[in-house]
Amino acid sequence: MGHIVEFPSNGSTGRGFFSPASGGGPGVLVVQEWWGLVPHIESVCDRFAAAGFSALAPDLYRGESTTEPDEAGKLMMALNLGQAAKDCSGGIDFLLGSDDVTSSGVGVIGFCMGGGLALTVACQRPDAVKACAPFYGIFPWPHSEPDWTRLEAPVRGHFAEKDAMFGPDAVADLQSRLDALGKDAQLTVHRDVEHAFFNDSRPEVYAPTEAEAAWSQTLDFFRASIS
Predict the structure, then answer these.
(1) pTM here?
(2) pLDDT value at position 136?
(3) Which residues are known catalytic residues?
(4) Comparing C-alpha atoms, which of 96, 81, 95, 88 is closest to residue 118?
(5) Residue 161 belongs to what domain range?
(6) Cα separation of 80 and 90, whole Å?
(7) What does the buried/exposed string (b/e) look like for 177-198 if buried means 16 or more CB atoms within 10 Å of the residue's CB?
(8) Count of domains forming the chain
(9) For a surface tag, which of 69, 128, 129, 213 has the fewest beta carbons within 10 Å of its beta carbon?
(10) Could you report the average pLDDT of every consecutive run of 10 residues in the chain (227 residues)?
């Protein structure tokens, strides 16, 4: 359903996978895992399109991707966080300027590394981000957490009980900090599942029941929040 597009990214050119809804729909930015812009992320965009949204996944690695964890870790740690944020912001502007997008704001969803970036983008673009759904989001870069005071969008996050990178204690700490700032955030820890439980291309961690529940809740959240 989708196709590769290019868009301005603060003086350079970004690229990404764009899957528009038939007849147009609210805009959604999909932020990749550490693997890169892989078929799983493209399929998430297509699923959004089938559900009535127009979704774009920026290619943050600029054409690189991998299926090897060690290489993925290297790509993630080499990622220029500032450039990634610019690419995401450029992606938001692409969506808002597209005839296939019917909303004046966007939802942002991200997975693993992309979950952390989704929260970052929500803080950096409060003018445009109307809903944020991080899935097992992490902040692997030193001092990479955003300025939470700038967060205006409601957050509905989905995390895993058996997550060695961002487990229940870390989720509870983030929930407490967002609560203290008066933010509209609900961070759900799904029981008995592992990090990346939504990724149906990885049968060793995929948890279909919890994944479908999180997906359904996210669709309802975005439908209620993006206009």
Answers:
(1) 0.97
(2) 96
(3) 112, 163, 195
(4) 88
(5) 3-225
(6) 15
(7) ebeeeebebebebbeebbbbbb
(8) 1
(9) 69
(10) 92 94 98 97 98 98 94 92 92 98 98 96 97 93 88 98 94 97 98 97 97 98 96
**Three-class DSSP labels, the chain:** CCEEEEEEECCEEEEEEEECCCCCEEEEEEECCCCECCHHHHHHHHHHHHCCCEEEEECCCCCCECCCHHHHHHHHHHCCHHHHHHHHHHHHHHHHCCCCEEEEEEEEEEECHHHHHHHHHHHHCCCCEEEEEEECCCCCCCCCCCCHHHCCCCEEEEEEEECCCCCHHHHHHHHHHHHHCCCCEEEEEEEEEECCCCCCCCCCCCCHHHHHHHHHHHHHHHHHHCC
Read off the CATH number of the domain in which 108 is found.
3.40.50.1820
Distance CA 40, CA 32 (A): 9
pLDDT at 1 (0 to 100)? 77
Token pair in block for residue 114: 């992309």
